[in-house]
Amino acid sequence: MSDAVDLPLIGAAARRARAASRVLRTLPTDVKDAALSAMADALVERTDEVLAANALDVDAAAADGTPASVLDRLRLDAGRVAGVAAALRELVALPDPVGDVVRGSRLPNGLELRQVRVPFGVIGIVYEARPNVTVDAAGLCLKSGNAALLRGSASAYRTNAALVAVLAEAGQKAGLPEGSVELLPADRASVGELLSARGHVDLVIPRGGASLIQRVVREAQVPVIETGVGNCHVYVDASADAAMAEAIVLNSKTHRVSVCNSAETLLVHRDVPFLPRLLAALADAGVTLHGDPAVVEMAARAAHDAVVPATDEDWATEYLSMDMAVRVVDDLPQALEHIARWGSGHSEAIVADSASAIAAFTAGVDAAAVLVNASTRFTDGGEFGFGAEIGISTQKLHARGPLGLPELTSTTYVVTGSGHTR
Amino acid sequence: MSDAVDLPLIGAAARRARAASRVLRTLPTDVKDAALSAMADALVERTDEVLAANALDVDAAAADGTPASVLDRLRLDAGRVAGVAAALRELVALPDPVGDVVRGSRLPNGLELRQVRVPFGVIGIVYEARPNVTVDAAGLCLKSGNAALLRGSASAYRTNAALVAVLAEAGQKAGLPEGSVELLPADRASVGELLSARGHVDLVIPRGGASLIQRVVREAQVPVIETGVGNCHVYVDASADAAMAEAIVLNSKTHRVSVCNSAETLLVHRDVPFLPRLLAALADAGVTLHGDPAVVEMAARAAHDAVVPATDEDWATEYLSMDMAVRVVDDLPQALEHIARWGSGHSEAIVADSASAIAAFTAGVDAAAVLVNASTRFTDGGEFGFGAEIGISTQKLHARGPLGLPELTSTTYVVTGSGHTR
Questions:
Q1: Which residue in A has a C-alpha nearest to residue B118's C-alpha?
Q2: To 10 degrees, what angle do helices B332-342 and B355-364 make?
Q3: Residue A422 included in any domain
Q4: B262 or B214, greater pLDDT
């Protein structure tokens, strides 16, 4: 039952997507897979067209003084186009979640009960100036039987429009209904329309930084999945092996600083004897340490200049940079208390050899992922073997952690009788 | 990471509940089960105290001119108190979902991956003047390891306060932490606080009529599960058996008219020869029929006076009464179109003997439950064998259909390595 919502900017696209979704939910896997292959082929064939559109976006962004790192994410080349095409082909190899029977039984009265995976219907994706998301998100939505309403950044609009034109044309030739992939206008107001479009969109997933996600969560009247804010901790227990702790802390912090599963705060048990060495290793790797008083004092004794005093702001910050907050805790409960207060529920790691400490940490941490003697960087759909992910959920409803294809589906109970009444 | 939210009415209770939730998530099943048994015993022992409080609420409501049907739902007696106590004891027998391993594997690099069920944390329940919900909801939340923030109707406040006092005291004696069950003030503004309490409450479930649910969905900044609005259809295909169709339509409509899984609209294929008989059976059962022109004409020929002309309003209405809208459709796609436009995604039934019609209906309907040759009344946690339900979800995110104990949990990925880095 669609609520009456006025959607001047996105209404036409949303109606095409809804109509498409009613066909998509019934398509067999081989039709969807053939369409994904055809889309991948078309992207490669029409690379020049995509790159020409992208050059206009990149030039305009550069003229606006856009920072180099943002320009780099916006810029496509033949290799990157081939990369997104290859990602579509990888989806072909993954199992189709639609039609999976999640549970089934025969009830005592003879009714056959089956809970079956079905597509959501229409999924909206709101994202920033990364054109690869356009193709990735469209592919994931289609493989799971959903129509995609894509709302990318204005600065990538020409690129996204070229990509969607290629995808839609190839998809329709291969048997997908019109409206399966729709690019929404990049007007500022189109996000608001999407978030209010009850009955028109079944799920919205924001992919981007904290401010985008906060806006989506606060404004949305449609169901959303929060993704990607990671204020992740590594706790080094008194029982930890020194070399393992050093390797995991360094990897969690420095392997790739700009991603949500990198660590931001190090919590160290006060009985850990090798903290000075750990701090030195981080400093040597180029990490600026924001320390509590115990850490600052230790650094002063060791004449480190890589330590600055931490404030509450540091415990709360997702640096996404070569910075790390460091606190010495009295015991494991204090570490759990710190994580409960400051963590974002993404990934929390413990380095320990004590089974009871590991059990207490695992039971006590409330997060999408708990990593035991492993780097926080492992919280990832690819690393988990999901084959593809549309983001990492930090909410508890529906799906937590990496979102693969099954997480892009809902379920229906199919109850089959032979004239059963109550 | 709790957002800063000002909660003058519910803040203290919410903080106690959060503290309790951190203990509840680690409690073994036997402690929770012992507490549920103790609560059941205490309710029976302290029935007089509960009934005294209830009498005050009932008298005040009666003096306010509250309708008899509402008074009946509000009123407790010794039998009803024993009934809610028995429902708590039934929860003891159900499996604890917490700790279930949803999936698990060893990754190629040797990491052990397990997805484990964990409690949500703090669950808010907003409901109307039905004191049994206080006990049912508290029991379901506790068994699944969650603290419960209960926001019942002002008219039942004294009853609810007495019930929660009994539950909390018995629970704490049996080892539950303080704050496991909290009754919120019944001030009008307390619902708004609950719905805005990001970081304090992990999930809110409204239990009540359409207007309550709409308010919750529109205002909520916290995750919610929509429950219980059911504009359910029965479609009678040309291939249907006459007797089966009559039994299922009558049962779906008249077995209990005030509940969400009762049918509101009958869709009949134009080639069904027994429509006059079906309409007569409904009329004989006391159902007022709201018919499309074909039905009105048929009724005029048969001199029925139980048929009034239907408008779009009728297709949209969840009557919850002895009324039924009736439409003759040209074919199954037209029935699917009608359901897509007017249905609420709750329960949709088909009566048919044609396997292809059944397959097309099952694939084409987007609802929590599709019933094949069975009454819509079977969409129910008890009927499905879940043992208990907190409501029937009509949303696609997280859980669809009857919500049992597993639906009151989230999951955590536990990743165990031996010093793994990327």
A1: A366
A2: 20
A3: no
A4: B262
Total count of domains within chain B = 2
Residues A181 and A262 in one domain: no
Tell me: the pLDDT tens digits for B153-176? Answer: 999 999 999 999 999 999 999 999
Q: Are residues B410 and B368 in the same domain?
A: no
For residue A111, list chain B residues with Cβ-Cβ distance below 8 A: 374, 378, 383
* Residue numbers in A near B198 (CB within 8 A): 217
- Rounded Cα–Cα distance for residues A143 and A141 (Å): 6
Task: Please report whether residue B56 resides in a domain.
Answer: yes
Q: Are residues A251 and A369 in the same domain?
A: yes
Which of B108, B113, B221 lies nearest to residue A217, judging by beta carbons?
A: B221
Name the residue range of residue A316's domain.
232-383
CATH number at B367 reads: 3.40.309.10
Between CA A118 and CA B335 the distance in angstroms is 20
Q: In this structure, what token pair is assigned to residue B178?
A: 């303080």
In sequence order, what are the beta bridge partners of B372? A416, B350
Q: What is the CATH number of the domain that holds B53?
A: 3.40.605.10
CB-CB contact of B122 with B14 (8 Å): yes
Separation CA A203–CA A119 (nearest Å)? 11
Same domain, B254 and B346: yes
User: Which of B231, B233, B235, B232 is CA-nearest to residue B351?
Assistant: B235
- Hey, how many other C-beta atoms are within 10 angstroms of the C-beta on B80? 16
Q: What is the DSSP string of B27-42?
A: --HHHHHHHHHHHHHH
Cα dihedral A185, A191, A192, A196 sign: positive
In this structure, the answer to whether residues B219 and B195 fall within a common structural domain is yes
Structure tokens given for B415? 């990743």
- Kindly report which listed range (A2-6, A372-376, B15-19, B245-249) carries the lowest average pLDDT score: A2-6
Say if A66 falls within a structural domain.
yes
Instruction: Count contacts between A and B (CB, < 8 Å).
Output: 223
Q: Tell me whether B408 touches chain A (CB under 8 Å).
A: no
Question: What residues contact A185, with CB distance under 8 A and at least 6 apart?
Answer: A9, A10
pLDDT digits (tens, 9 = 90+) for B328-338: 999 999 999 99
What average pLDDT does this structure show over A235-257? 98
Q: Do B192 and B267 belong together in one domain?
A: no
- What are the structure tokens assigned to A252, written together? 């969690």
Asked if the Cβ–Cβ distance from B400 to A410 is below 8 Å, we say yes
DSSP class per residue in A127-167: E-S-HHHHHHHHHHHHHTT-EEEEE--GGGHHHHHHHHHHH
What residues contact B329, with CB distance under 8 A and at least 6 apart?
A: B235, B267, B268, B269, B270, B335, B338
User: If we measure between CA atoms, which residue out of B358, B366, B363 comes closest to residue B240?
Assistant: B358
B266 and B159 in a common domain: no
A396–B107: do the CB atoms touch at under 8 Å?
A: no
Is A144 part of the contact surface with chain B (CB cutoff 8 Å)? no
What is the arithmetic mean of pLDDT over A382-396?
91
Q: Is residue B180 part of a domain?
A: yes
- Give, for A120, the enclosing helix (H) or strand (E): none
Interface predicted TM-score (ipTM): 0.93
Asked if B410 and A397 come within 8 Å (Cβ–Cβ), the reply is: yes
Measure CA of the first residue to CA of the last residue in chain B; give whole Å.
27
State how far the Cα of A255 lies from the Cα of A236, in Å rounded to an integer: 18
Q: For residues B113 and B104, is the Cβ–Cβ distance under 8 A?
A: yes
Element (H, E) at B272: none
What are the CA-CA distances from residue A150 to residues A276, A392, B114 (Å)? Answer: 49, 18, 33
A231 touches B: beta carbon within 8 Å: yes
Same domain, residue pair A105 and A127: yes
Min distance B408 CA to chain A CA atoms (Å) = 9
Asked if A128 and A168 touch (Cβ cutoff 8 Å), the reply is: no
